[in-house]
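Reminder to self: tokens first, then the designed residues, so the page reads top to bottom the way the pipeline ran.
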């Protein structure tokens, strides 16, 4: 089946969904176009134009992830309390301000402030959207529409379609300067804000609002959910290496980061064309736990491929093949892990607290990424044999398989 026919099938399947689900899925597409127009080029900007050391670049990237993922629990709790509309609109406004600030930031403190604002903006709008998609996916499943993982896979496809277009747009604008890239990203979120102010419903049928207080205690006593958080955090740390370890490897092999946008495009294109067939195949054969375990094993294999090739030190086009293999295996692992983890949350969450639990999953994993990214940046700067950091990174998703909770 060609990529074009797969894209057509994705679009046709989306038209079967409710208007709210279609809006939320298109929201994810727009979010990622604006975000990924900027993020893939941030590390090079920090190390080059701003002049940060490697450990500081890793820390700032981890701080961005933590301010986003780590504060998801706040956005999720606010969505449970006030509904998704005010939370999404506020997050979009903050993202516009953050991208504008980053475009003009020249000192380390200003960069950190802008990155924190960018991350916190997503901590508001993303858990609100994700929790409502998960809730609507359960409704879809209960009314006979099909497995909830199918809806969540469509959500992932939309996000990766945005991640495919975003880096290409950013690479095109980077020929001007990094500021232009940031302002373009801000402009996209201006359009998103206007569209959602018009289309997003004030009240969503079936969604109850609960107090912010009273949900954290039961969550912290939910061992199965906390185990899922740890395993998902290991996956997210591995995925974050697309922005830290991969650029360093591409620079080593090619002498520049020009091929990076194409590797990001490869990852996104794989998800856009293969996510739904993979989800359909896996859904007929594997439980959620086994799907996540298989995905984590593929991700570990991706790091091992680069580690095995590095002692030979290939450069040029042959030198980029291990990086491409890493991207393919990481992406295949993501296809298995991400929909399964999202589909698992409604089974583990307390009634009325789906936003809180969706946010907590990302908050816990964001803390893991913050610590792990700083450690990875240090490893890449210490002068160890190049294969060592990749071997250590391969051990992280491999160990996470044992952390996965048993599905009751």
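Designed residues (408 positions):
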């Amino acid at each position: 089946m060609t990529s074009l026919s797969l894209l057509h099938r994705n679009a046709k399947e989306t038209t079967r969904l409710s208007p709210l689900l279609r809006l939320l899925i298109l929201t994810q597409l727009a979010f990622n176009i604006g975000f990924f127009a900027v993020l893939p080029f941030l590390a090079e900007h920090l190390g080059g134009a701003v002049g940060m050391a490697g450990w500081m670049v890793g820390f700032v990237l981890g701080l961005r992830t933590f301010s986003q993922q780590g504060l998801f629990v706040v956005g999720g709790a606010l969505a449970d309390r006030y509904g998704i509309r005010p939370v999404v609109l506020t997050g979009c406004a903050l993202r516009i301000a953050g991208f504008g600030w980053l475009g003009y930031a020249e000192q380390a403190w200003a960069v950190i402030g802008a990155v924190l604002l960018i991350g916190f903006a997503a901590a508001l709008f993303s858990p609100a959207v994700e929790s409502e998609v998960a809730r609507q996916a359960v409704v879809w499943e209960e009314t006979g529409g099909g497995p909830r993982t199918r809806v969540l896979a469509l959500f992932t496809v939309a996000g990766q379609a945005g991640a495919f277009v975003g880096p290409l747009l950013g690479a095109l604008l980077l020929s001007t300067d990094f500021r232009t890239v940031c302002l373009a990203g801000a402009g996209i979120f201006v359009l998103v804000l206007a569209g959602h102010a018009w289309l997003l419903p004030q009240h969503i049928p079936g969604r109850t609002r609960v107090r912010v207080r009273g949900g954290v205690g039961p969550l912290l006593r939910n061992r199965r959910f906390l185990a899922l958080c740890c395993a998902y955090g290991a996956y997210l740390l591995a995925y974050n290496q697309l922005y830290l370890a991969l650029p360093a490897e591409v620079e080593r092999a090619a002498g520049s980061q020009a091929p990076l946008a194409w590797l990001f495009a490869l990852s996104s294109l794989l998800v856009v064309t293969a996510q739904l067939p993979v989800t359909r195949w896996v859904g007929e054969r594997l439980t959620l736990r086994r799907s996540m375990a298989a995905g984590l094993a593929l991700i570990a294999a991706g790091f091992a491929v680069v580690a095995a090739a590095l002692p030979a030190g290939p450069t040029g086009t042959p030198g980029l093949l291990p990086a491409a293999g890493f991207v393919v295996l990481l992406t295949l692992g993501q296809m298995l892990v991400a929909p399964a983890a999202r589909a698992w949350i409604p089974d583990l969450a307390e009634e009325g607290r789906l936003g809180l639990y969706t946010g907590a999953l990302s908050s816990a994993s964001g803390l893991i990424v913050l610590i792990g990214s700083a450690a990875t940046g240090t490893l890449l700067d210490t002068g160890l044999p190049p294969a060592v950091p990749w071997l250590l990174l391969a051990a992280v998703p491999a160990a996470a398989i044992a952390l996965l909770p048993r599905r009751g």
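The chain has 17 helices and no strands.
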